[in-house]
Design brief:
Blueprint: E1 9-11, H1 21-25, E2 31-34, E3 37-40, H2 50-54, E4 60-62, E5 75-80, H3 95-104, E6 108-109, H4 112-127, E7 136-137, H5 142-151, H6 165-181, E8 188-194, H7 197-204, E9 215-218, H8 219-233, H9 247-250, H10 257-262, E10 267-271, H11 273-284, E11 294-298, H12 314-331, H13 364-380, H14 394-403, H15 412-430
Parallel strand pairs: 5-6, 5-8, 7-11, 8-9, 10-11
Antiparallel strand pairs: 1-4, 2-3
The protein binds iron/sulfur cluster (2 copies).
Length: 435
């Protein structure tokens, strides 16, 4: 069911020790620790997964679909993210993973990497248009798209309104399967095998009105079931290979891979949430060279191979992906036949800014008054950004106070100040009176 209230990243209250590690890492200041437990402000969360990485207690996890969701359909299609290939040691042929997925129980596997090649060509064509805001920013990472809508509203028109490879693959895989089987589209289930929680949210609440992905499984859940099948096939002779995506599509899962597949020399790429925010700030402040046409951003370090729902280290996975790309180039297999892009491959409406979440009040006059009050409170605090109050910064605590969610008593320096004053007052009161 499509609903914007859904967030993939959730907290397991009973495991949280209130250490504030996650509070400090959240890029949208969406976490507070209150009464010794973390709380996620859902409207601010972009499902980037940073808090899952930061939590030493494993108190944060991602909601994904259970593998049993396949039972709801008559025909099932696996849509493996290219990052899945990087999880297997010694893989020189992506077709083993596709065959493994079929042996695991899917009726068919349709490569998202193959769709990525088509999407790359669409982006290259889009970049040639004279009327688009520059630089154009990739829309492939849903966490980045939500980050832009929340924190960089002036850049929403720069986001490329083209389907992600996941959406494109689902659209075509279901259309082709319906033709092949004669089944109605609603009896065919397309399941993306995801490296990250942001894709789960992107499916449950798509930025476009159309959504052909019926569920999202994590690489972590699929990998243990798929591994024995892939290992059983690893010695299969090369002549039994089937057509697979080429190096360009496979490379999308590593940082810089999308830009390389789009093949526009005027690009800049950043990976990881901090690097991506820095680059967005540079674009917003006009600090990027004028000739930059395309910007690739990804919330995970190293690209999708760094997603929190993978099993392998991003560094190891990256090197495996590079080997697989080399093997794909050497094999020179013909391209996977995917029909030309349909009109639906473009978003039906542009990305909109989500500014209400950060507004202090819907009434402009009240918002200005609250901003002044926030600044007064912030100036009165100690500026240590220690996080002991459960907010990420002193400014965030001041904002919580203005919004009525916190009081100054949460500041330990304020408490110390008051205790000191109390001790001094008691000392004065205890002094013997002198004549
Ligand atoms: S998933 Fe990202 S945005 Fe959401 S609470 Fe965690 S760190 Fe913050
Ligand atoms: S990192 Fe966050 S969720 Fe994990 S124990 Fe610390 S406060 Fe709780």
């Amino acid at each position: 069911m499509v609903t914007d209230s859904f967030r993939s990243v959730v907290l397991h209250d009973e495991l949280c020790k209130g250490c504030t590690n996650c509070v400090k890492r959240c890029p949208t200041e969406a976490i507070r620790v209150r009464d010794g437990k973390a709380h996620i402000i859902k409207s601010r969360c972009i499902d980037c997964g940073e808090c899952i990485r930061a939590c030493p207690e494993r108190a944060k996890t991602a909601i994904v679909d259970p593998l049993s969701a396949m039972e709801d359909f008559d025909y099932t299609i696996a849509l493996p993210a290219p990052a899945l290939y990087g999880q297997f040691s010694g893989l020189k042929d992506a077709s083993l993973v596709l065959e493994g997925l079929r042996r695991m129980g899917f009726d068919q596997a349709f490569e998202v990497a193959a769709a990525a090649e088509r999407v790359s060509a669409l982006i290259a064509e889009y970049l040639r248009r004279p009327d688009i805001p520059r630089p154009a920013i990739s829309s492939a990472c849903p966490a980045i798209v939500r980050l832009i809508s929340l924190r960089f509203p002036s850049l929403v028109s720069h986001v490329i309104p083209i389907y992600s490879p996941m959406q494109y693959a689902a659209l075509w895989a279901k259309r082709l399967a319906a033709r092949e089987t004669g089944l109605p589209a609603e009896r065919i289930g397309a399941f993306f095998i995801s490296p990250c929680p942001a894709k789960v949210r992107a499916v449950r609440h798509s930025v476009t009105s159309r959504n052909d992905v019926d569920g999202v499984f994590s690489i972590r859940d699929v990998y243990p079931k798929l591994l024995p099948h892939v290992m059983g096939l690893i010695k299969r002779p090369p002549e039994e290979r089937i057509r697979c995506a080429g190096a360009a599509g496979i490379g999308w899962c590593s940082a810089g891979g999308e830009a390389s597949a789009v093949d526009n020399p005027h690009f800049v790429a950043a990976d990881g949430i901090d690097g991506s925010i820095r680059l967005l700030e540079d674009i917003e402040d006009g600090r990027l060279p004028d000739d930059v046409e395309f910007v690739e951003l990804g919330a995970c370090s190293g690209g999708c191979v760094g997603g929190v729902l993978t099993v392998e280290s991003p560094f190891v996975a990256h090197s495996r992906v590079v080997s697989l790309m080399r093997a794909a180039r050497e094999a020179q297999l013909p391209a996977v036949p995917i029909p030309d892009p349909p009109a639906e491959a473009f978003w039906d409406s542009p990305l909109s800014a989500n500014t209400e979440v950060l507004q202090l009040d819907s009434d402009i006059g009240k918002a200005i008054a609250k901003r002044r009050e926030l600044e007064r409170i912030e100036a009165s605090l100690y500026g240590m950004d220690c996080g002991a109050c459960g907010a990420p910064t002193c400014r965030a605590l001041a904002e919580d106070i203005v919004r009525g969610f916190a009081t100054e008593d949460l500041c330990i320096y304020r408490i110390k100040e008051r205790l000191q004053a109390l001790i001094e007052a008691q000392a004065v009161a205890a002094e013997p009176e002198t004549l």
